[in-house]
Amino acid sequence: MKIEVKEGILLIKKHKNTSVKADIAINDDEEKKLITGEILEGENKGKTAIFGKYAILDLNLKGEMYSFIDVTDIIGYCDYFEK
């Protein structure tokens, strides 16, 4: 399915492994836990973004799960890629 996101919104793929050190920016307080995801559609497509776990908006559409974030929720980028 082709999803076109409006400017400022990103379609992402959340990384499944959020316990490795390369994937965690803050590890001591569960509420401040940051996670990473690959940007699938939108600006900086293909990069790995760092964002808070509560910034994610999930959509279940016909059995497929899609995740979105607002570009302003990105804290930074890193070179971590999940295989």
Would you summarize the structure shown here?
With 83 residues, the chain is mainly β. It has strands spanning 9-14, 34-41, 48-52, 57-61, 64-70, 74-78.
Please give a structural write-up:
The protein has one domain (9-78). 0% of the residues lie in helices and 43% in strands. It has no helices and six strands. The protein has strands at 9-14, 34-41, 48-52, 57-61, 64-70, 74-78. A hairpin with a 2-residue loop joins strand 4 (57-61) and strand 5 (64-70). It is globular.
Tell me how many strands there are: 6
Beta strand %: 35-45%
Give the distance, in angstroms, between the N- and C-terminal Cα atoms.
22 Å
Shape type: globular
**Major sheet:** 6 strands, antiparallel
Helix amount: under 10%
Q: Averaged pLDDT, please?
A: 82
Describe the strand arrangement of the main beta sheet, using strand numbers.
4-5-1-2-3-6
Q: Secondary-structure element order, as H and E?
A: EEEEEE
Structural class: mainly beta
Q: How many helical elements?
A: 0
What are the segments in which pLDDT stays under 50 over at least 5 consecutive residues?
20-24
Number of self-contained structural domains: 1
Please give the radius of gyration in angstroms: 12 Å
Labels describing this entry:
mainly beta, 6-stranded antiparallel beta sheet, globular
